[in-house]
Structure formats: structure tokens, C-alpha cells
Design brief:
- The structure holds 2 protein chains of 2 kinds.
- Chain A folds into 2 domains: 10-122 and 216-232, Peroxisomal Thiolase, Chain A, domain 1 (3-Layer(aba) Sandwich); 141-214 and 243-387, Thiolase/Chalcone synthase (Peroxisomal Thiolase, Chain A, domain 1, 3-Layer(aba) Sandwich).
- Chain A is 33% helix and 18% strand.
- Chain A has helices spanning 28-43, 66-74, 89-103, 124-132, 147-162, 166-180, 194-199, 263-274, 291-300, 309-314, 331-334, 342-354, and strands spanning 10-17, 52-56, 80-84, 109-117, 202-204, 207-208, 217-226, 238-247, 283-286, 368-375, 380-387.
- Chain B has one domain.
- Helices cover 9% and strands 37% of the residues of chain B.
- Chain B contains 2 helices and 8 strands.
- In chain B, the strands form 2 sheets. Chain B has a 5-stranded antiparallel β-sheet.
- In chain B, strand 5 and strand 6 (98-103) form a beta hairpin.
- Chain B starts with 16 loop residues before the first helix and ends with a strand.
- Classes of the chains: A alpha/beta, B mainly beta.
- The interface between A and B is large, with 35 and 36 residues.
């Protein structure tokens, strides 16, 4: 299949988030179904019109056959049914596969719904141990690294190689919070300063508490269909213009580089398919589980030269009035982070921005958005380029 | 250490048994490809460079340098809480490959990228000894 084969071929015609933060009245399975219900309503269709289903597994309520369990719960009987075992980049990888399934005529209408309850469905220690199980069971986990510590390893390397400062890392968290303050649904909305970040508790040097994303309950879902059908739905469709993946390693101790990631490959592939360049992006929703991740992604996706993302964020370029408004919903740092479903909120926000429905946080005249997800420890990357118009 | 039994014990697999048996004897064994002479870590059934299946075990120098590190202030679980603050690091071995470990027997604040380190072994049980590193006094 040619690299440009999916450009403008599929569209997102429904998108919705559940309540996020602490949602104790819903288990993880129910949250996934709640997200699905909301996305179906948004698209103006019934569950019986869905013939493809994509989910991700849950840590709080795991199912060995997760997508099948959700299909059964909803009593739908899809022709295409897959779940991502993990989160981050795999979220957009399975979306990529669903887009190919639509393009190949395997199915017409795919519901992608992901949710988890890391906040109230698990104890704090359970959530930490489960998330850190991304480490190698023989050669990493015995050493007691937490997920923040794994990411601290790349932060320290980026600081050592490029002179990135703790203040520049903090600027990423400050930028996210500024946007969350404009988003009534965000979990953390109180404005913070660089000093607040640097003054927060050290978790794993050089990462402070406020350099780390939230621990949340929540879910989000989208409805994807062929571009031909996209105008039959109530909202302005959002077209997939480009999608690309890059897979560098699973375990950080095996990384080809600590400071350059497979976002280089996923970004290049997505831009090539879209026929666009970083300068064409009006708004970027970029995976921000920890502040240093954002800097490496901005560089690897081509928004900055290597080593310059710290200064870019510090200069305010990622603010709503900057050259690249970023994480306009507040991101994983301030909106919510329920683990595996995290990237979905970047996607629903990109859709909201391209529909011009983002209210106080709307990027004016946003035509093209980029959403980037990574998972593992900078391991699995996927980049999506979305447009308000089919031909970008 | 009394809390050691609660830590995450490595469970050797067929391709890593020799490595862990070496650790039990306080020797850091590495795989070297007999075809292309490259070292690799972690142990595998094929060479990551040339895909040869003809690998030999060699006793490594046990020396390397700190490629990157973090001081963990909040332990991953109760089993590791007594060790806080502890250093998790990636060590580039003199033979070439990189491995994760802890840097021990030093003030965590003194660890630096590029510092030379030497392997030591912590006995967790009769069967399992875990390689860790201490600063190398030149």
C-alpha cells in the first residue's frame, strides 16, 4: 500500500470525553461504555450502526479479550474488533489499523473507545506497580525504577547533552496549566508558575511532582468512517490527512538513543502522507506524560532543532497566541491521565479545535492539527495529522 | 536485607540462566558473537548485529560508566521504600552494551553522568544475586 494511500480517506465524525478526574461512580468498563455512548450521541448514530470496535485494555478492570468484552456489554457484533494491550502510541497505532480496515472495505463505521480508572479503581501503589511493569521483568524492574524514574533517565540525558534546564522543563507544565485553566473539564485548573514546579516535591531527579502527569479516571471515544460518508453526520467532519508510526524499543535500557526518539520516523511518515510540513500545523496535541517528553517530541517532529525545544517553550511559543499552540486542553499534565487511554484526549481535543468548538481555548481558524502519542518509555510512537478539509 | 524477599525477583528464562548463574557466582557474564565479535546485553538466542545463533559467554570486566541516572525519592513499592533515596542508572559497559542497575555504596548526590563504576553483587537469595554498581575509585 502506498504511503499516501490513507490521505483524506477517513474522517472522525463523532468525539466525546467522559467526566474525568475522580469518577468513583463508574468502573473502568462502565467508563469505556459511557465514552462510547457519548461519542455515538455526538455522531448522531445508534450502536447498531457500528461495525468496527477498537478499545484498549484497562489496568483497573482488565479483560483478556477487552474489545470483545465491550462489544458484549454493548451487545454489538462487529466485523472488526481489536484492543490495544497498552496505551500511548499504541492508541494511534490501532486507530491507524482501523483506518486501513475502513479503506479496505473491512468495515464502515468504527467506534474507538478507551477508558480506565487509575485514580479510584486502584490503590496508589497498585497503580504505580502496574504502570512500572513496562520495565523489563529481569533486567529493569528489579532495580526499583518508577515510571517517573524511567523518564527521568531521558530528562537527565537531554539536560547533559543539550543544556536543557529544570526551568525549561517546568515551562512545559506551566504552559499546559494555562490552557487547562480555560477548560472547565480539566482536572487541575489553578495557574502555576515555574517556581511552583521547581518548588514541588522531587519525585525522581530532575522531575518534580508538577513535571509528572496526573493519575485519573476517565475515558474518551471517537467514531471514524470513510470520507465519502463523513458529510452525513451532524458535525463538521475532521479528516485524517496523515498517519505514521515509529517503533524504537520497548525497554529504555535498550534505546538506540536517549535523546532522539522514534517520533522522528512517525512524524516524517505522517507529514509525508499528508504532504505537509511542521510549519503547516495550526495546533499540536502532543503526548506529555512528563515534561521532558514534550521537548524531545517537539524536536523529533521537526517543530524545533535538536536541543532547542526548551527555549521554544520558555519563549511562550506553545501558548494559544504562540507560533504553535500546544496541548490546548491541558494535556496529561493538567487535563487528565487515566493511563492507557491518555492519547485519546489529545485526539478528541484536536477534533474539538478543528470543529472550532473549543470556546475560550479555541485556536483561531485552526485548519490542521497534529496529535502525537508515545508509549512505553519513549518506545512506541504514532503521529496523526488531521484537517478540517479533506484535501488539507 | 530483611525486605529483600518482597522486591521484584528476576525469574531466569532458558536464554538467561547462564547469566543469572554467573551472577550467583558474582561474575558478570556477557554474550559475544563468535561471527562478528560484538557483545550484547540482555542475553538472547541470536546476535542483534548479524543474527548469528553462534554466541559465546565471556566474563566481562564489570566496569563501565554512568550513561544517565535518576535519584528515586518516592519508591515504586513498599519493598523498595527503605532504600530511598536510591539511584537507578543506565551503565554503558566497557565492552559496549548498556544495562540498567543501581549505583550503591555512595552518596546519591555525588553520582554524575560519565562517572566510572564497577559491578558488585547483592545476594537476594541462594539462587539470585543482583548486579549493582559502585563508583570506581581510580
Amino acid at each position: 500500500m502506498a504511503m499516501d494511500s490513507l490521505r483524506g480517506k477517513v474522517a472522525i465524525v463523532g468525539a466525546a470525553d467522559t467526566e474525568v478526574g475522580k469518577v468513583p461512580q463508574c468502573g473502568a468498563t462502565a467508563l469505556c461504555v459511557d465514552a462510547a455512548r457519548r461519542a455515538l450521541d455526538d455522531a448522531g448514530i445508534t450502536k447498531d450502526q457500528v461495525d468496527g470496535l477498537v478499545t484498549c485494555n484497562s489496568m483497573a478492570e482488565p479483560h483478556m479479550y477487552h474489545a470483545e468484552a465491550i462489544a458484549e456489554y454493548l451487545q454489538i457484533f462487529p466485523r472488526f474488533c481489536v484492543s490495544a494491550t497498552a496505551g500511548g502510541g499504541t492508541t494511534f497505532s490501532v486507530l491507524h489499523h482501523a483506518a486501513m480496515a475502513i479503506e479496505n472495505g473491512v468495515c464502515d463505521t468504527v467506534l474507538i473507545s478507551m477508558a480506565d480508572s487509575l485514580r479510584t479503581g486502584l490503590s496508589r501503589e497498585q497503580a504505580m506497580v502496574l504502570q512500572s511493569s513496562t520495565g523489563h521483568p529481569q533486567f529493569e524492574i528489579p532495580y526499583g525504577a518508577t515510571v517517573p524514574a524511567y523518564y527521568a533517565l531521558i530528562a537527565q540525558a537531554h539536560m547533559d547533552t543539550y543544556g536543557t534546564t529544570p526551568e525549561q522543563l517546568a515551562a512545559v507544565a506551566v504552559s499546559a496549566r494555562k490552557h487547562a485553566a480555560l477548560n472547565a473539564n480539566a482536572q487541575m485548573r489553578e495557574i502555576i508558575s515555574v517556581d511552583d514546579v521547581l518548588g514541588s516535591r522531587m519525585i525522581a531527579d530532575p522531575l518534580h511532582l508538577l513535571d509528572c502527569s496526573l493519575v485519573s479516571d476517565g475515558g474518551a471515544a471517537v467514531i471514524m468512517t470513510s470520507a465519502e460518508r463523513a458529510s452525513d453526520f451532524p458535525h463538521h467532519p475532521v479528516y485524517v490527512l496523515g498517519v505514521g508510526e515509529g517503533h524504537g524499543h520497548e525497554h529504555i535500557s535498550q534505546a538506540r538513543s536517549l535523546t532522539t526518539s522514534a517520533a522522528v520516523e512517525s512524524g516524517r511518515r505522517a507529514f509525508k502522507m499528508a504532504g505537509l510540513a511542521p510549519a503547516d500545523i495550526d495546533v499540536a496535541e502532543i503526548y506529555d506524560c512528563f515534561t521532558p517528553v514534550v521537548l524531545i517530541e517537539l524536536e523529533d517532529l521537526g517543530f524545533c532543532k535538536k536541543g532547542e525545544a526548551g527555549a521554544f517553550v520558555e519563549a511562550g511559543e506553545t501558548a494559544l497566541d504562540g507560533s504553535l499552540p500546544m496541548n490546548t486542553h491541558g494535556g496529561l499534565l493538567s487535563h487528565c491521565h487515566p493511563g492507557n487511554p491518555g492519547s485519546m484526549f489529545a485526539l478528541t481535543e484536536a477534533v474539538t479545535q478543528l470543529r472550532h468548538d473549543a470556546g475560550a481555548r479555541q485556536v483561531e481558524n485552526a485548519e490542521v492539527a497534529l496529535a502525537h502519542a508515545q508509549g512505553g518509555i519513549m518506545s512506541s510512537h504514532a503521529t496523526l495529522i488531521l484537517g478540517r478539509e479533506r484535501d488539507g | 536485607m530483611t525486605e529483600a524477599p518482597l522486591k521484584h525477583f528476576p525469574r531466569p528464562t532458558p536464554e538467561t540462566e547462564v547469566y543469572w548463574e554467573g551472577c550467583r557466582k558474582h561474575e558478570l557474564l556477557l554474550q559475544r558473537c563468535t561471527q562478528c565479535s560484538e557483545f550484547q546485553f540482555y542475553p538472547r538466542i541470536i546476535c542483534t548485529h548479524c543474527a548469528s545463533e553462534d554466541l559465546e559467554w565471556v566474563k566481562g570486566s564489570g566496569r563501565g560508566q554512568v550513561l544517565t541516572f535518576s535519584i528515586v525519592r518516592r519508591a515504586v513499592s513498599e519493598a523498595y521504600a527503605a532504600d530511598v533515596p536510591y539511584v537507578v542508572a543506565l551503565i554503558q559497559l566497557d565492552e559496549g552494551p548498556t544495562m540498567m542497575s543501581n549505583i550503591v555504596q555512595c552518596d546519591p548526590e555525588t553520582v554524575k553522568i560519565g562517572s566510572p563504576v564497577q559491578v558488585i553483587f547483592e545476594d537476594w537469595s541462594e539462587e539470585i544475586s543482583v548486579p549493582q554498581f559502585r563508583p570506581l575509585q581510580e
